[in-house]
Amino acid sequence: MANIQAQSRLLAILNLLFSGDTVTAQSLATQFGVTVRTAQRDLDQLQALSVHGQLLLRRIPTRPVGYHIDLNAQVQPGVVLMLEKMILQSRTLTAVELQTALNALQQLTKNSALPSLQQSIAEEVANYEPIVTAQNRARLIWQLQKAIEQKRHIALTYVDREASEWQAPETLLVVPLAISFNGQYFHLSVHVEASREIRDLQLDWISDFQALTQTDSAQPDPKVGARRRLQAYGYRGKTIKIQFEYYGLLEYVYDRFPTAHVLRYLPGKHNPWPFRVAVVEMDVEYSTGIRMWLITQSPILKVIAPQNVVADVKAHLKLALARYEEDDITN
C-alpha cells in the first residue's frame, strides 16, 4: 500500500511538472499531506533520472528552491517504462485516458525504444480493467482546478454511494478547495455553503457540474494537504494520538503516516517475524479509514491506546470473526 501511494504521488507530481508548473518541496508537502523531507526525497528521485547528461528535472535557484521539467530533453526509456507500469497498476484511468497517457509518455523518449516499450506492456494493456466507476474525467478535473484557482463557486449534483445503496442525489453549492488522489480514486475537497462544512467528494460520483460567476475572496483555509497526512483512504475524522505494537517493517508505517515515530522497542516480546517489536505513536484523524487500515494490519499490529480505539478495533475484528463462525455452524 505504501509503495502504491508513493508511486501515485510521483505520478501526480509529474503531471504538475508536465503541465508546465514549477513546484517546491514546501508546496508539494502541503498539497500531498507529507513532510517537506518526503517531498524533497520525491524531487531528488525525479532529479536523479538523467538522460544523456541532462536532468529530467531542472533545479531553479530561488528561495524556496523551485523545480520544473525540461520538456526539450528526452526521457530515458526506463523512466517511461516505470511510469507506464505505475499508471497500469493504479487502474484509475479509463481505456481512452490510458491510451492517451501511454502515447504521450512514449513520445518523450527516443523512437528506437518504442518497440521494446510497447512489447513490455502489451499483455497488461490487453488485460487492463479500470475501476468500476472510472469515467473520462480529464476535462472535469481541469475545469475544477481552474475554479479552485479563481475561487469560484460551483454547483453540482452528488450521490454518496458509500452512504447507502439507495442514496438520493443531492444538489450542492460549494467552493472547491483541492483535488487529491489516493491511489485509485480522485477526490474534490469542498466548502459546502449551506452547512459551512468541509467535505471530500469522490470525483466519479459528481454530475451536472456548473461553474458560477460568484467568487469567494475570503475562502476558508482547510489545510487540506496537511490534514491528508493524518487520514487513510480519504476519510476525515477527529485528530487524536494512537499507539500500537508493530511487528513488521517500520518503513511501511512511516511512508503511510509521516507523523509516526517509535516510542520504544520491546526486546522481550515474541515476534514470529524477523523484526524487533516496536511501540509506535502517530497523530491521525480517527475515522472509518484509519480503522480499516488498522484492521488490515492486524496480523502485525496491536492497538494499545487510547482505550476507545482499542475497543473499536476489537469490536470490528470480533464482528468479522463471527461471520466466519456462522459459516462453521451452518456447515
From TrEMBL:
Gene Ontology molecular-function annotations: DNA-binding transcription factor activity
SUPFAM superfamilies from the UniProt entry: Winged helix' DNA-binding domain
Entry keywords, A to Z: Transcription, Transcription regulation
Residue ranges annotated for the HTH deoR-type domain, each copy included: 6-70
Pfam families xrefs: HTH_11, WYL
Keyword Amino-acid biosynthesis: no
Protein name: HTH deoR-type domain-containing protein
